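call fold(seq) -> tokens
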Amino acid sequence: TQSTWGFVGLNGNFAYLVLTTALLGLVASSTSLILGALSPNVNTAIQLSPLLMVPQFLFAGFFIRTSAIPVYLRWAQYLCTLKYSLNVLTIIEFRNPPAAQHDIIYGKHGFLESLDINPNALWFYLGLLLGVFVVFRLAALVALVRKGRSLSG
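ret:
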């Protein structure tokens, strides 16, 4: 892990990158948990999971830039937690670039702007991810308790 980090040449703080990736895992598992809790059976949950996960890759700007997505579909990017996680990872990685690269990353039409990332919104992105984690876990808990009561009683 950390030895790979050095070989790859990442510039971001290793601990922050790992914590952000862990948060992404927690949010993704919370999304899966609520899907499973709200589904009537396991097969339905398995069949519905691609409907939640595949758009994450499409609208997060991972494969194509969000500016290339038709305007009438761009709103969906704000529902994708993967986008916020990638934004946080990108901000951490490019937080203190060498002076020669500063304009390439932060300037008008720079790297971050081309990805629709606001470098000043780091805490917003993190707060949103934490909020989704907590809300989805609590909603899944409520759904599972209700499902358990209906099965037992």
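The chain has a mean pLDDT of 88.
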